[in-house]
Amino acid sequence: MLERILTLPSDMKNDELTQQQNSHQELLVKLFNDHLNFRITDFPAIKTHFHFSYSKKKEFLVEEGAVATDYFFILDGYVRTFYRTENGTEVTIDLLRKGEFASSMYSILKKVPSFEYIQCITDVLVCRIAEKSFEAMAMEDPKWIDLGMKCLKSALLKKEERILTFGKLKGKARYEQLIEEKPDLILHVPVQYLASYIGVKPESLSRIKS
Fold first, then answer.
1. Spatial distance between the Cα atoms of 73 and 126, rounded to a whole number of angstroms
2. Strand partners, 51
3. Contact 53, 126 (CB under 8 A)
4. I want to staple 197 with a disulfide (CB 3.0 to 4.6 A). Which of 41, 92, 122, 124 is the partner?
5. Which residues of the chain register pLDDT less than 70?
6. Can you tell me the distance from the alpha carbon of 195 to that of 189, in angstroms, rounded to the nearest whole number?
7. Is the dihedral of CA 29, 35, 36, 39 positive or negative?
8. pLDDT score of 20
9. What is the tens place of the pLDDT at every residue in 16-72?
10. Cβ(81)–Cβ(96) under 8 Å?
């Protein structure tokens, strides 16, 4: 896992560090409220469970073969989840952006090596939460259990909707639906990833877009 833990230039003053940390914490609290309708009112008491980090474009948050342990809440930037077929073809299975969670859920819950990669499409700022930290918070406050159930249901619904979309819609309709729901993707996600995500070849997507 190649993400960079937030480090400081040697000449950064303590008050600048505090300001940066407060800024990230405020952003996290706001995104939890705006995107998950979940209020964090006691962040100082739980802040040791949350770790902010930057990752560069094309770096990995999770790699195939490694046992995943963390959830990533995206504070800025875009990431994709993909796997490689036997012949080396990359198949994009999810495109995620600010306000969404990224994780190799199967690896975390089964404690087995991940079959997928989570890669940064752009430079990314994330807040990382370990599964064991989430469990510790849930033991202290049941509201975190409720949040976990909400996120799990959302992930299951998203997978179900994706299966239905592929079964009922053709490539053009899948593209139109994606852009209607997330119009910013066309500006930040390379064509080959968009094409893979909706199940068409890049040249086919170019014709669809024209």
1. 5
2. 128
3. yes
4. 92
5. 1-17
6. 10
7. positive
8. 76
9. 667 777 889 999 999 889 988 889 888 888 999 999 999 999 999 999 999 999 999
10. yes
Output the pTM of the full model.
0.86
For residue 5, the SS3 value is strand
Q: Name residue, tokens 């993909």.
A: 82
Residue with tokens 């994709």: 80
Nearest to 151 by CA among 114, 189, 108, 121: 108
Task: Report which DSSP code applies to 3.
Answer: P
Retrieve residue 85's tokens: 């077929």
CA dihedral 103, 195, 65, 136 (to 10 degrees): 0
Q: Is 14 helix (H, G, I), strand (E, B) or coil?
A: helix
Residue 90's Cβ-side half-sphere holds a number of Cα atoms within 13 Å equal to: 14
Q: Roughly how many angstroms between the first and final C-alpha of the chain, as a whole number?
A: 38
Helix (H, G, I), strand (E, B) or coil at 91: strand
Tokens matching residue 41 = 């009112």
